[in-house]
TrEMBL record:
Keyword set, alphabetical order: Kelch repeat, Repeat
Tree of life domain: Eukaryota
Species name: Mycena albidolilacea
Keyword Repeat among record annotations: yes
The organism's taxonomic lineage, starting at the top: Eukaryota, Fungi, Dikarya, Basidiomycota, Agaricomycotina
PANTHER family with a match to the protein in the record: ACYL-COA-BINDING DOMAIN-CONTAINING PROTEIN 5, FIBRONECTIN TYPE-III DOMAIN-CONTAINING PROTEIN
Protein name as catalogued: Uncharacterized protein
């Protein structure tokens, strides 16, 4: 709506007046505050449908063609109607939370986020997600923040500390630079600085969080277990790898290339480990192409083609290298792919006849759809962009021809709302039926921009918070809702689609701008990291089968669930998942972490991991049968920390010195005295 130009005071008066007239949701708030919760809920619903009409189901649910983030009806709402509808959504979320309908309460909080996001589509020119556009209506600011903080409280109760903390941090970030008339007592009560600072001390998962062994919230939580494989002999990749390629074939885990640390050594080798008898890594022929011809073997992806027992290596060159898994040799007949740019492709910056400048691509999201016989490549960096691009290409393996589906060679000056913005190290997978290709999070390296004279530079990287899917038939992107109990924004995450579980799985990664505070109880000095590393695990279910006692509209919709595990691998980025298609088991290997982020005695700034883990989840086919949940709760390591056998607290505890050879740990003499008798009995330990 057009607002007359007035001086500051006049404008404020007008805003106050409009607030009173337009925000009928406040009638619901009055009922809520009077304790008349059913009447409040009814009022919120009535006012909400007054705005959207009867044609729209509220809350709109994820997944179906109308269930994306962008809703034409919402884009068409003026700011006051938008604020009023947000008020109704927040009110309904609060009412449902009181009734313990957690999933629906979260869906209504997300509806506020969607309403806010749709506002961006009213701007005369699309803007990138890293620009936070806030209309000058304090009520709208308050409602947006309230929805984030209500969701944060619910997620914290669910034990999803990463997403809970990110939501509360985002509420702070989106409001901190707004003018004084937004900074109301009410807003600051919602933002709750003390709670925010407390939450920023958490790790995700937090080793001190109580181990929920009680009943889970169906649909939002799944029990799981991380088990480390005991590779007896050192050597090969056991000294740690980052930015490597990784896959599983015939129950063997393969790792190729990458580096030991950011300063090297840089590898071009290949190794395999028998997952059924993981005694040692075996060396295979290294990558035969010269460094001069291919560049470093960093941030590349290898894709298994079960149909002919080969694996493909995409490097950004027209030649796709092929490794024959049966003969264990690099094929002398690699795939020679071709590409002919269209006029639109040239317009998109493909000027030298090949999509990736310098014929290199790294940190792209490379996905294989077996049912479409197609390789999809999104984003990544190349010779003319180190920040990450939004180029989306498809290679038809039948014709060996590339085609550009969306995006440009370099990040355009003006954003495009219709496709994911530029990024690298995103997660992604093709749905098994070949109908959709998913893209999750990743980051745009704005810090690196100035070095290479690229657009959109800034002092810090931007961590994408979005989730997209590409409709293969309609050739269109849809920005997806992130429903359920989801992971927070992150990049360099481990991801895979497990066909046996029918779930995508996500683990770890890092958030480039979510701070972590570390209180040192010995020195009394605090350290603040401007980033966070994660060790949490999530599943994405695209077609949940709703339980009969849960008839809400969200129960059938695609959604995320957190996997709750007593132990977990140390917080890290660049780890990789792979699924053994023979057994359906999910394995994770490698990655790295900043050493200051975890307790350590070394002087090195970072360390990479060479460990192999199996993730077991309590779902059909999840290999959970052998897991002793109670025992795990007392012995499983919480990231870098041991767990005390007696009290289950996590910390740098001492091993039991008995004949058990350190099967359990104790946090101190009190717990040792208390737990010794039981440990003796349970593990047949004797004083050594
Ligand atoms: Zn990293
Ligand atoms: Zn203890
Ligand atoms: Zn012992």
């Amino acid at each position: 709506m057009a607002r007359p130009t007035l001086d500051g005071l006049g404008e404020e008066l007008l805003v106050n007046l409009m607030t009173k007239v337009s925000l009928t949701c406040r009638q619901g708030d009055a009922l809520f505050d009077a304790g008349r919760f059913d009447a409040a809920e009814a009022k919120y619903f009535q006012e909400a449908f007054e705005i959207v009409g009867s044609g729209l189901a509220l809350p709109t649910t994820a997944g179906d063609p109308t269930g994306g983030v962008i809703c034409d009806l919402y884009v068409g709402l003026n700011l006051w109607k938008r604020a009023n509808l947000m008020g109704c959504c927040v009110g309904i979320a609060k009412c449902l939370r009181r009734k313990n309908d957690i999933e629906m309460a979260l869906a209504w909080c997300d509806e506020v986020n969607v309403l806010y996001r749709c506002g961006f589509h009213q701007l005369p020119q699309p803007i990138y997600d890293w620009i936070d556009w806030t209309p000058d209506i304090p009520e709208l600011t308050l409602l947006k923040s309230t929805a984030l903080c209500v969701a944060s409280e619910i997620l914290a109760e669910l034990g999803n500390s990463g997403t809970a903390t990110t939501r509360r941090w985002n509420a702070h970030k989106t409001t901190k630079n707004l003018p004084m008339h937004h900074q109301t007592t009410l807003l600051h009560g919602v933002l709750n600085r003390a709670l925010r600072n407390k939450m920023l001390e958490l790790r995700h998962p937090d080793p001190h969080a109580p181990l929920g062994t009680g009943p889970l919230v169906p649909g939002l939580q799944v029990r799981g277990s991380w088990a480390r494989l005991n590779v007896a002999k050192m050597g090969g990749v056991t000294d740690g790898r980052e930015a490597f390629a990784c896959f599983i074939w015939n129950s063997h885990l393969y790792v190729a290339g990458g580096r030991t640390s950011s300063t090297g050594p840089f590898h071009r080798d290949m190794w395999k480990l028998n997952l059924n008898a993981p005694e040692q890594w075996h060396r295979l022929p290294g990558y035969p192409v010269t460094l001069g011809a291919s560049g470093r073997f960093i941030g590349w992806t290898m894709l298994v083609r079960e149909s002919n027992s080969t694996v493909l290596l995409f490097t950004g060159r027209p030649t796709i290298d092929v490794f024959d898994l049966t003969s264990e040799t690099w094929s002398s007949a690699p795939l020679h792919t071709t590409y002919t740019p269209t006029a639109a492709d040239v317009e998109a910056g493909i000027t030298d006849g090949w999509p990736w400048p310098g014929k290199v691509s790294c940190d792209a999201t490379v996905m294989f759809s077996a049912s479409q016989n197609t390789v999809y490549v999104f984003g990544g960096s190349h010779a003319r962009s180190i920040m990450g691009c939004d180029l989306f290409m498809a290679l038809d393996l039948a014709t060996l021809r590339w085609r550009r589906l969306s995006g440009s060679v370099r990040a355009p000056r003006v954003a495009n709302n219709g496709c994911p913005s530029p990024r690298k190290n995103a997660g992604g997978w093709a749905s098994p039926d070949g109908a959709r290709v998913y893209l999750l999070f990743g980051h745009f390296d704005r810090e690196a921009a100035s070095v290479y004279n690229e657009l959109h530079g800034a002092g810090e990287a931007f961590g994408h918070e979005d989730f997209w899917s590409w409709g293969v038939k309609e050739e269109k992107w849809r920005r997806e809702r992130i429903a359920g109990n989801p992971p927070c924004a992150r990049t360099e995450l481990a991801y895979v689609y497990n066909e046996k579980l029918q779930r995508a799985i996500v683990f770890g990664g890092y958030h480039p701008t979510l701070p972590t505070y570390v209180l040192n109880t010995t020195t009394g000095r605090d350290t603040q990291f401007n980033y966070s590393y994660f060790g949490d695990t999530f599943l994405y279910d695209v077609a949940p089968s709703p339980s009969p006692d849960h008839a809400t509209p969200t129960s059938r919709a695609p959604k995320w669930a957190q996997v709750l595990t007593a132990g977990f691998p140390t917080y890290r980025c660049q780890a990789q998942f792979a699924v053994d298609s023979t057994t359906g088991k999910t394995y994770m290997f490698g990655g790295w972490t900043n050493n200051q982020y975890i307790p350590t005695h070394t002087q090195m700034m970072s360390r990479s991991f060479g460990d192999v883990w199996e993730l077991r989840v309590d779902l059909p086919g999840g290999n959970f049968e052998g897991v002793d949940v109670e025992e795990e709760g007392r012995v499983a390591r919480a990231g870098p920390w041991q767990r005390c056998w007696a009290c289950a607290a996590a910390g740098p505890w001492k091993k039991c010195g008995g004949t058990c050879k350190g099967r359990v740990f104790f946090c101190g003499t009190a717990c040792f005295r208390e737990g010794w008798a039981e440990h003796k009995r349970a593990h047949k330990c004797r004083k050594a």
